[in-house]
Structure formats: structure tokens, C-alpha cells
């Protein structure tokens, strides 16, 4: 026991010297403020409070303080304000795409200094590589995946039967997706649509759903270093053209901007037969859809594909080595397979490690609800979510372009060229 | 207020129609909130008159966060801010309106500059000040940056300036000191302005969100608006019934107060010229 403590203290001092920070003396308990953005409904804050209490019970020397910090957008505002005023949290969950922003603000430290034992290295390797793409850059690990998601296709099996489609065979590629949607779109006598074939939401963060189309068409939207975007590549324009064709050419998708927040509602009310939305909606759909529904991987263009999404753990620079050590301990504790599994079951997020899917709890859950594995099976095709330096503005350039194309004020080519020009202007200083 | 604008004939009909139109537009979101909050989720976008009413959404919303505590915090916050504002604003406005002192013009210009700056721009600096004072995560920290209100000072100064000098002088001849004059002459005459200002202040601080979110961390110091954040489920679909129920809960006190004191409010607004 004592030896172990001494070992830890020595390690702490070593890290402190390495980080050229003031060595924190072993003082109990170590306070770890932890910002947590609320991004799913329901009793989420209670689950987090419960996890924190369990962790403290096992580690009485650590005082974990969960602080609910609003939506992801509000959380990054709160974090950056606190960082600038010298009062940052020790750890926080923030969007994985905020990585470059946080690095540029000099707010976070990489996890590499804390990952020392072979056990730790094995732990780091156990996360799905698709999720690590948004967590590592320049050979360092800046984020640890926690509440992550991808996009999947939800479809109404009853409508499939009514339209003469096999309810157990969802569309596998773009061509089938169009054919199915055509069969699933219904009009009344006056030609007004009473049931849409498909909806891909485009409010708020259209880039995320669009990114899936671009990946399926053959390219991601940016390079791994976060210094270059490919908004005007032919494949990207092909993806956008396909989306617009669903609206204009085939008329199986509502015109204009489709609301993200109400798309599940439209699905429950049988206004739409197929919808693209996050796996985070799984629990919501399961409890609210009054009909038999299916979940499928997104259909393939040239290839299958979806961006990942959601939040990572970050470690903040303005903290003592002892605090970082304590936060790291919590992050490891909360991502062990059975907790990662339970978290996925409770929230609908994709369990972030392969081992989590082998736990008895998860096996039982999947047996009763096979739709839950679709997200996992799609992970090998998943790519990093759009994330660059000056992320907010570079992403906004694309969002504006997409909405301009969807509302018909610009052609796809023009919209993407303008977005690319704006992104290049913003990224010039980072090259 | 001797002449009241009064139109007749067609202009009057148009004005009435426009007023109704604006009124209906304004009340629509509220009406929607009422409908959705009292019905179960499946009726949130379908209007069937026979739909069963339910209080379930309110129960769920109330249970989702410690709203009782948040209400106490919000009431404490708006009372504290308003009390401090009334005292500071009255004294400052009195000084600017009725006393000659060197640098008065410059000082008043500086106060007015505050009107030009959006409070959101100052968030980082305010946060730093609160951290320096050791007030982070307290109700005082939420209210402190708003206590010296430039808007209030400006408004009251203008009102005090309209008070006839003769009243002031008469009170002085009767033997009142400067503070007694303020209390016995100026404050009573400015009552409608105080009422209008109080309403603006209370509703602003009741609804303020970003600053309280950033400066507070714990249940003990957070106001209701920040409590509402648990419903901001962007990773999922939005559950309108529970959001509208929670929104009604948190705005109910203001709505009720407005309906009760509506006549006074409208009159004070007309007199104070705030819209």
C-alpha cells in the first residue's frame, strides 16, 4: 500500500517536472471539476451523478464534481471563458471536433504523458479506430471517446410492407434508396404529398449528414491535419447533387430545410418512411415508435460510409498533475467494458470499445434489440467528422453553402466552390 | 398626457385589425405551448379537440431537475438585482439630474457608453473579476455585473429632469435636506417609471441565460433558465411536450404577475415612454 502510494507520489513529481508546473503536494481529497454537456434527454444527469458517486466510493481521495454545462455549443463557450480567466475545469466532455480549436487555444494537454503502463497502452488501443480519427493528431492523443454516435437509416417496416417491399431488406445503395423512396412516397388526389419516402435533416448542422453522402461518393471533407478542406471536389458535388435529386428530380424528399429536431417526430407520425439520423436516437425511437421499425447502415454510393459524431473527454492544461492523474483514473474507470456497455444501453450512444459488446449485459440487450448492433457494424466504414483549425467558421462556410443549395439560391457547384474559397481563406494562416 | 390619439372610420378599423393580428401572432407560440404541455406526445403536432388532457408532462419536467431550488435562486437573484439597481440608479440619476460637479458631462457620457456595449462581449472580463473576488458560482456573481444599470440611470435622470424646479425649491424652503427632497419629491413623482423599469429588469434577469450558465456550476446557485438546459437534447429528437411543460412552469410566475398587474404596467409604460 505505502509503496504504491510513494510510487504514485514520485510519478506525480516526475510529471510535474516534465510539465514544468508547480508540483502539487499529496493533499486529499483531489478536486476534479468535470464539465458535462447535456446532449440527450431523459435522466442523463442522474446517470452521471450516479457514476460520479460510485467512482468516489471506490476512490475516496478524489472528489469528482460534475458540472452540467448546457449544450455542446454552450459548453465550449463556458470552457473557453473559464480557460481565459484561469479557472478551467480539469476534464470535460466536448465535441470531438473541437480538438483543433482547443489545441489552438492552448487549453488542453495530450493524454500521452499519462499513458505509461502496457495496460494503459492496451486500453488506448481498445477503442474503435473510427472514433480515434477525431481524437488524435500529430501523433498525439488529445481526446478519449465517450459519448459517440454515427448516422444510420431508420425505416418503417409497416410502410415497407404496404409498398410491397421486403421489410427485412433495407436499401443497400443509392439506386435502391431512390427506388424505395419512390415507392414509399404517397400523394393524395390533389397531388399533395401525404407521406414522404425519405428525410435527411438539414437544419443546425447539415454538414454532418451531408458528410455521409460525400464519404459514400468517395471522399471525406478534410485532411487529417485539419488544414485543408475538399468542399469543391467532384465527389463532394456528386453527393450534394444526389441529395438535391431526391428533392427536385424524384420528389421523394421534402423541399427546403428539413428540421433536425422534428424529423424523429415526423417518423413517429408516419409522415416519412425512412429517415437518416443519429444512433443517439435509438432509445427515443424505440420508446416512441408505435409500429415495427428497422435500423440499417446507410446505403452505399461508391462505398458505404458515415461520419462519427459526439463527444470526447479532454484534459485541461490549467490543472495540477495530481488532478490530471485523478481525472485520468476516472476516464479509465468509466470506459471499462461493462460501464461502456451500460452507458450505451442507457443512452443509445455506441459503446466505444469492442470488448463492451462481449459483456453479458450488452449481449442480453442486443438479443432483445438487434437494431443496436447496426451502428457497431457500420463503424469499419466510419470516417472522422469534419474538424479543422478554426472549426466553427470553416464548418459554417459549408453549412451556409449546403443550405443555399438546398433552398435553391445557388447551384451545387457554385455553393461548394464558394464554401471552399471561404474555408481556404480561413485556413490560410494554419498552413 | 392631455391629448389622446383617437382615430375614426377606416383607419380605426385597420388599426384594430393590425392590433389583433399582432396579438394573435404573439400569442400563437404560447397557445402552442399550452396545447402541447397538456397533451401527451402523440398530439404535439396534431390538433384533435377530443385529445385527452394530461398533467404527466409537468410531472416529468418537474422531476427532471431540482426546479424548486432553481425557483428560489431565481427569485433571490431578481430581488437582489432589482433592490440594488433601484438604490444605485436613484442616487446616480439624482446626482446627474440636479447637481453641478466637475466632470459631470464626462461621467454621464461614460455611463452612456455602457448602453452601447452588449453585456455578452464582457463575459470573459466579468468572469475574471468574479474569480478575483472569489465569487464564482454564487448568486451574487450572477447579479453583480448588472447592478449599476446605465439604462436605469439614463431613464431616471430624464424623468427627474422633468420635475419642476419649483417643487424642489419649495421642499428645500420647508427644510428638507437633499436626500429628503429626493425621497419626498422625486421618487414619488417617478413612480410609474420605477414600475416600468422594475418590470424590464425582472423579466430580463428572469430570462437571462448565457452569463448565469457560465458563472455558475452548482444547483445551489443556478437560476431556472439554466435548469431548463437538461432538455436541450441535441443528440436526440426533441420532446416538445416536456420542453413546453417546463417552459410554462418557468415562465408561469411572470405571466401570472403580468396578467394581474397588466393595467398598471401598460399605464406606466405609456408614461415612462419605454416600449
Features of this protein?
heterodimer; A: 431 residues; alpha/beta; D-Maltodextrin-Binding Protein, domain 2; disordered N terminus; B: 275 residues; mainly alpha; MetI-like fold; globular
Largest sheet of chain A: 11 strands, mixed
Please, what is the CATH homologous superfamily of chain B? MetI-like
The structural domain count of chain B equals 1
How far apart, in Å, are the first and last alpha carbons of chain B? 17 Å
Anisotropy-based shape of chain A: globular
Care to count the β-strands of chain A?
Answer: 13
- What oligomeric state do these chains adopt? heterodimer
The percent range for helix content of chain A is 40-55%
- The CATH architecture of chain B: Orthogonal Bundle
How many H/I helices of chain A?
18
Write out the CATH superfamily name of the largest domain in chain A. Periplasmic binding protein-like II
- Our count of domains of chain A comes out at 2
Mean pLDDT across the residues of chain B is 86
CATH fold field value of chain B: MetI-like fold
Cα(first) to Cα(last) distance of chain A is 50 Å
Summarize the topology.
The complex is a heterodimer of chains A (431) and B (275).
Chain A: H1 2-18, E1 30-36, H2 44-58, E2 62-68, H3 72-84, E3 91-95, H4 99-104, E4 108-109, H5 118-125, H6 129-132, E5 136-137, E6 140-141, E7 144-156, H7 157-162, H8 174-184, E8 186-187, E9 193-199, H9 206-217, H10 234-248, H11 263-268, E10 272-278, H12 282-288, E11 293-296, E12 306-316, H13 321-334, H14 337-347, H15 360-368, H16 373-378, E13 382-383, H17 391-406, H18 412-427
Parallel strand pairs in A: 1-2, 1-3, 9-10, 12-13
Antiparallel strand pairs in A: 3-12, 4-12, 5-6, 7-10, 7-11, 7-12, 8-9
Helix pairs in contact in A: 9-10, 14-15, 17-18
Chain B: H1 9-37, H2 56-64, H3 67-98, H4 104-116, H5 123-133, H6 139-143, H7 150-161, H8 165-173, H9 178-189, H10 191-207, H11 210-215, H12 224-227, H13 240-260, H14 262-272
Helix pairs in contact in B: 1-13, 2-13, 3-7, 3-10, 4-7, 8-9, 10-14
